Amino acid sequence: MIRRPPRSTRKESSAASDVYKRQVYDQKAVLEQRAKVLSATRLDSAFRSALKDLDRDPPSDYELHLKEAKESRKKMEEELREVLEALREEEAVKMLSGEKEMKLKKIVEDIEIDEKVLSTLFEYAKMLYDSGEYEEAVRLLYFFELESNNKEDIISSLWGQLGGYIVLDQKQKSCHAFIRLKDAVDSLVFLP
Q1: Looking at residue 4, what DSSP letter applies?
Q2: pLDDT range class, residue 14, cuts 50, 70, 90
Q3: What spatial distance separates the first Cα and last Cα of the chain, rounded to whole Å?
Q4: In the Cβ-directed half-sphere of 15, how many Cα atoms lie within 13 Å?
Q5: C-alpha angle 65/67/31, rounded to 5°?
Q6: Using CA of residue 29, residue 35, residue 41, residue 45, what is the dihedral sign?
Q7: Of all residues in the chain, what percent are helix, strand and coil, respectively (each to 5)?
Q8: Average pLDDT in the 113-127 region?
């Protein structure tokens, strides 16, 4: 917390003013924290930029980490191929973006969506979110919300949607996600 000099301090050189002037953030500590936070995400370019600012190379296992993340993503995309293709059709995109009111089930009715597929879809959406692909992540989390019966997972997907809409600066959709999240939490907390 930055302390401000009291309003009664009139002189620039007073003791209170000197304390205020000395309160400077340690730039290196800020950069260290930024790199630490980014290392837990899949935002590769931002992480490399933070390391460059610190004049450091990525950790020795970082390339392996990236390779494993890419393989994991490829595997999930293969498992979800049918669902992702169906959800990328123009009608599905319109429905998931709220441009059209319709049941999505018609688009994916020929695809068997069991709990395993839903779980993989949820993990894939989280991976996209961690990679900074917020628009696609939010669309998939919304679809997950519509398909899932697990209230706790629905709440997690709503948190992701809310965060994504905030990052994307979509205020109206953020408000709708917040209201749906509140309703979901209330229904979970106030069960008879």
Answers
A1: P
A2: low
A3: 44
A4: 0
A5: 40
A6: positive
A7: 70, 0, 30
A8: 88
